[in-house]
Prior knowledge:
By secondary structure, the protein is α+β, with helices and mostly antiparallel strands. The protein has a domain at about 5-190: Aldehyde Ferredoxin Oxidoreductase,  A, domain 1 (4-Layer Sandwich). Helix content is about 30%, strand content about 20%. It has helices spanning about 25-30, 35-45, 80-85, 125-135, 150, 175, 195-215, 230-235, 275-285, 290-305, 315-325, 345-355, 355-365, 365-380, and strands at about 5-10, 20, 50, 65-70, 75, 90-95, 105-110, 110-115, 140-145, 160, 180-185, 235-240, 250-255, 270-275. The strands form three sheets. Strands 2-1-6-3-4-5 form a six-stranded mixed sheet. The protein has a five-stranded mixed sheet with strand order 8-7-11-9-10. A three-stranded antiparallel sheet has the order 12-13-14, with helices on one face. α7 (about 195-215) packs antiparallel against α14 (about 365-380) and α10 runs parallel beside α11 (about 315-325). The radius of gyration is 20 Å and the shape is globular. It starts with 6 loop residues before the first strand and ends in a 5-residue tail after the last helix. About 55% of the residues are buried. The model has no long low-confidence stretch (mean pLDDT about 95).
Amino acid sequence: xxxxxxxxxxxxxxxxxxxxxxxxxxxxxxxxxxxxxxxxxxxxxxxxxxxxxxxxxxxxxxxxxxxxxxxxxxxxxxxxxxxxxxxxxxxxxxxxxxxxxxxxxxxxxxxxxxxxxxxxxxxxxxxxxxxxxxxxxxxxxxxxxxxxxxxxxxxxxxxxxxxxxxxxxxxxxxxxxxxxxxxxxxxxxxxxxxxxxxxxxxxxxxxxxxxxxxxxxxxxxxxxxxxxxxxxxxxxxxxxxxxxxxxxxxxxxxxxxxxxxxxxxxxxxxxxxxxxxxxxxxxxxxxxxxxxxxxxxxxxxxxxxxxxxxxxxxxxxxxxxxxxxxxxxxxxxxxxxxxxxxxxxxxxxxxxxxxxxxxxxxxxxxxxxxxxxxxxxxxxxxx
Length: 383
């Protein structure tokens, strides 16, 4: 089986027992993985399912996506999280039950286990991420962390993926909270085998070249959201950051606690990675400048709260901090908000295949072109 592992890790939080579930090849070769993930979720009693697509980690442009499937819907896992998950040796991780005490799930090298860690309940999402990386001795561990808002089951809760908010349009953090699940961490040291490596590489390079000639050079978030073209945004820009395999990145890191003109990071909280278009749009509408918005987003990320749910008209950094402490949230229709991942017409098809929906909405999703790249990698037609 190419570009796949052929198995799911199943972890029961109520007993601490873990097992492997072999997946039939026909179930993994039916294109999108979302149907199989939903089937696993129901089979294991309303479980949380972390999954990857058939192209996740391949050389197809922007093949970075994994996802979390829950009763609340589908949350994409972008950046390096989806690929890291697949390289653990599992295509899916199924999490069911509820533990006696809070803790986190730790996945690596074909092993999935629950680590009880009651003391982590007092930490914010950034502290949890750093604690797990320190305890396991690896800075490259990808961490999907809830914060105090998710723990308390507050409306507007959001998961942070290795520090940053913007992917959890359906408040999957609430599913973590009701399971006493503080975080899921994974580190992949495995490899993916392509059926025809040279053919896969050649086809993907040809498609990348065609996209590059049409899209040009990326300016980060400014290439996807016109508001990021404002001088107030660009004056704080430190760097543009790409997800795995993305030739036209949408992420912009702004420095607000250090000089953005200096490449080195000299403090523990120099700034914030922006790609959350709905929340940035809300901040601008509330009258916030980008410096204050960046500071406010940092506080929201630590709390595990969707910034758009605490950004009232006339918002300031202090008013946001106050809302985070009080737990008061505005009603926000996040999934349909302009610029959200779920609002993109490419969302389900792309995430199910392992592709970034934002990049492919920009490039123009051409399934025939994707299939031409995928077939030599998979050793079969994509569909």
